[in-house]
Amino acid sequence: MNDVRNSSLQLASLEQQKADKNFLTLIEEQKREKEEYLKKILQLEKQLDAKQKLEMEITELKGKLQVMRHLGKDDAAVQDKMKEMNDELEQKIEDLQEMEYMNQALLKKERQSNDELQEARKELIAGFKDLLGARTNIGLKRMGEIDEKPFQNTCKQRFTLDEAMYQASTLCTLWQEKLKNAEWHPFKIITGGGTPQEILDEEDEQIRNLKQEWGDEIYSAVVNALKELNEYNPSGRYIVSELWNFKEERKATLKEVVAYIVKNIKSLKRKRN
């Protein structure tokens, strides 16, 4: 009996070690991919600066050649200089074409790297749902989920305690269902400073009635969830999880998530067990 028990414990220990190894490997992969992505961004910026400089040199050479054609049609020395400048111009144009090709290749790599980073975020979200909660500095936030607390606060002022909890839950659930309707789009486009922006249409009938009937606190809770859905899942309109920096109230970077996991790996492992 003890042999069987010891064998089971050893097997469980080996499985745990394997899971821990995979866990750390994934973290290192995400860290390495992030560093590669940043390197490619810096390289692209340098390439674009060089491309702009080369374009300016080509424009300047074309201008000089244009002037010389008018001034020295019969001057042999001028003709030689024009040929030299024309050869230089052709070389610069060739360099520019090569640089544009390199830029396109780099942009393609950048898009691939960005896709990989997005995939890495999805893997972290899926893999660490049980580890990253909403009570830590770095965790998972359910984007588009309405906070029920404002509903409770408001309903407590209008109903008895038991009735307030029921009304708050019912009302919150009702509005969560309303948010799922992709055909309801209470947003409008404005142009400020020449840049189109999508903002909440506060004159939308349902939005206006919500604020009038239930007040600012519930209104803000619904609007915040609506804006999150419009940003993170406008077509599907269902709640999605996001890696979140709760301390600074923003999306967490992969670097922050990896640093948090590495720092807290022992306690996270205990939680998982």
From TrEMBL:
Coiled-coil blocks: 27-127
Keywords from the UniProt entry: Coiled coil
Biological process according to GO: gene silencing by siRNA-directed DNA methylation
Pfam assignment, any one: XH
Record-linked InterPro entries: FDM1-5/IDN2, FDM1-5/IDN2_XH
Key word Coiled coil present: yes
Lineage of source species: Eukaryota, Viridiplantae, Streptophyta, Embryophyta, Tracheophyta
Factor of DNA methylation 1-5/IDN2 domain segment(s): 141-271
Protein name: Factor of DNA methylation 1-5/IDN2 domain-containing protein
KW Membrane (keyword) present: no
